[in-house]
Amino acid sequence: MKKLLLVVFVMTTVCFIGCEDTLENADPEISYLSVVPGEIYLGDEVTIECVASDADGDVLSYAWEEDGEAVPITTSSITAIADEAGSFHIVCTVTDGNGGEDSEFIDIVVMEQPFMDSWTLAALSFTCVDDELLVGTPPNATGSLTIDSDYTFTWSTTLIDDDEGTLAECLEEDISVFTFTATGTVEHDEDYLYFDVGEVEDWVFMWEVDEDGDLILVEIDDEDDTIFVFE
Length: 231
Fold this sequence. Notes:
By secondary structure, the protein is mainly beta.
């Protein structure tokens, strides 16, 4: 009887050792951290996502840090408004509740918004009804343009006709002063600004900022014969 109990004890011990080996917990694995948008400016909405998986199918928990300080977010992604310029070190740690974990980091740079500014009109030109070119420069052409931090713009331009009635002839209207005003939203990519002026037949104005910081109108809905320069 004693030998039988001993054999049972040994077999049970071997089984426990083998079971522990086969049921060893697998650590979760972070595939990558992603950030949208790729270029971040002050005022942008930023989303950081931690893409992770677990071979055991364990439920994962997420912990975030920004520059060494804990962030009170426990989901796999963070969405926030970039309200400060600079470089930020973001760490995400994933745990599976069974002692397994993985960490990954990403460095994010928030840049000063280069488009938040105010300009005054320096020059303009556009084609008249009869295909002649009308050119305006101060003092007969004045204007201002402002882009705010919430990506809205305010734009106004005033043209005063000369003694020959060039403006009235160009516009084919009995007019001595022509004023254009518009407000709307701004979108941008690495090279251009786009003004959505819905009240003007859904026109989109495409601008670029040159090396001197001047704002130059490139085209209006594929038409490139109208030029505005703000400095």
